[in-house]
C-alpha cells in the first residue's frame, strides 16, 4: 500500500499549478499568446482544451527558469578585494597625515608620561572612583528646553563649552548658551532634515562672527590645533539633501556646501587638526573632504549597507566607521587600508567613540541594545555591555580623561558608566520620548541630551568636584583657553565630488535598513 501513488495529492498539486498560471480562457486569446511565445498555434488532433494546457505548461516552465537565472547572478557576484588609483593630491595628503599623526602620537605619549609623573596610577584610579561617586550623587537635570517645533536628531557642545548646538527635522540649526540654555541664534538650513552636526576643533561662536568673505587657510600643525584650517568655519551639518552644509562663526546662512554623496548624509566629523572633514552616508560610503581645497579627496567603499557611525582617532591616523549591517571597520588614513574589521553586533551600529585615555579603546553603540568595548591593541572585543532595552542612539566618552562613558537610548534614558569596570554610575531620566543623541562637555562637568519629544536637557552637578583639577591632565595651552580663529579671504563655493582611492569590497548591495533616527 505504501508504494501506491497518492492520486489525490497529485491532483491537488496539478490544480494548484493550473490556477497559479495566468492562462486566457478564450481559444482565440490562447492562439495569439502561443504565437507571441513562438509556439505552434495548433497541433494535429489538438482541441481547445489541449491547446490551453500546452500554453499553461509553457508559461510554468518559463516561471521556473527565472529563479535559477537569479541564483546564477547572485553566485556570480562574489566578494573581491579591489583598489582604485588615487590622485596626487590624495598621496600628498596621506604623507601629511603620516607626519602629523607621528607628531601627534609623540606629543600624546609625552603628555601621558607627564601625567604619570604628576599623578601616580593608584591616585588617578582613586580620583576616577571619587569622580564617578560625585556624578552618582549630584548629577541631575538643570534645564529642560524646547529645542524646535520638530524632533531633534543630534546635539553637540562647542569646543569652549560655552554653547550647545542642536539640529533636527525642521532643517534648522540652533545655538544655545551654556549653562543658561538661552537661544543665541537660529541658523537657516536648506529646509530638509539635518541628521548630524559637528563643531570644528578650537572654533568659537561669536555674535559678530567673521565678515562675509573672511577666513584663512594654512597647513597641518600639531601645535596650532584647529587654527590651521579655514578661518571662520565653525559648524558642519549632515543633511538629507545629500549635501554637507557649512557655517561660519556668527553667520546665519550657510556659506557653502560639499556635494558628492548619492544618498542622505548621516554623520559628519572634523579631524583633530580641523583641516579635514569626514562624512558617512546611506550610499554605503564614507568620504573625506579637504577643507583647504574644498574638494573630496577620498571616496571610501567597503560597507555592504549604509555607513552611519563615524569617528577620527585623536592622532588623525585612523577613522572608525560603522554601518547599518552591524559591521565596524577601522581604516588607516596613511595607507588607505582597512586594518581591523570589528564584527560582533547583530544590528545596525549608530555611534562610535574613542577613549581619550590611552586612545586604544573604542566603544560602539548598536540597535542590538548593547555597547561593545574594543581593544585596538589586542584587536578583539574586551567588554560587552547590555546597556539598554532598546536601540542605543549615541555613545560618548568624557573628552577630558575618559573617566566615564555616556550612552543614550530609545528607552528614554541616559546612562553613565565607569570607564574601567563599566558598571552603571548614574541613570538620567526625564525625556518623554526616545533620545536621539547626547554629548559630554569638553571638561566633563556637563552632559546634554536631545530627544524626539523636541526638547533637550542639560545635566549638571550641583556642586564642584573636589579632586584633581583638570589642569593636571592638560598642558597650560590646552585648558579651555582657546585663541580665536585666524582670518583671511576665502571663496564661497560648493565642492563637487572628485576621484577617491582606497580599499573596498565589491559586494552585493542589499536593501538598506532605515535607521530609526
UniProtKB/TrEMBL annotation:
Chain intervals for the UniProt region annotation (Disordered): 60-79, 483-517
Ranges of compositional bias, category Acidic residues: 66-79
Keyword tRNA-binding: no
Keywords assigned: Repeat, WD repeat
CDD domains: WD40 (cd00200)
WD repeats: 258-299, 300-341, 342-384, 385-427, 428-460
GO (cellular component) term, any one: U4/U6 x U5 tri-snRNP complex
Pre-mRNA processing factor 4 (PRP4)-like domain span: 25-75
PANTHER family for the chain: PRE-MRNA PROCESSING FACTOR 4, WD40 REPEAT PROTEIN
Protein name per Swiss-Prot or TrEMBL: Pre-mRNA processing factor 4 (PRP4)-like domain-containing protein
Species this chain originates from: Chromera velia CCMP2878
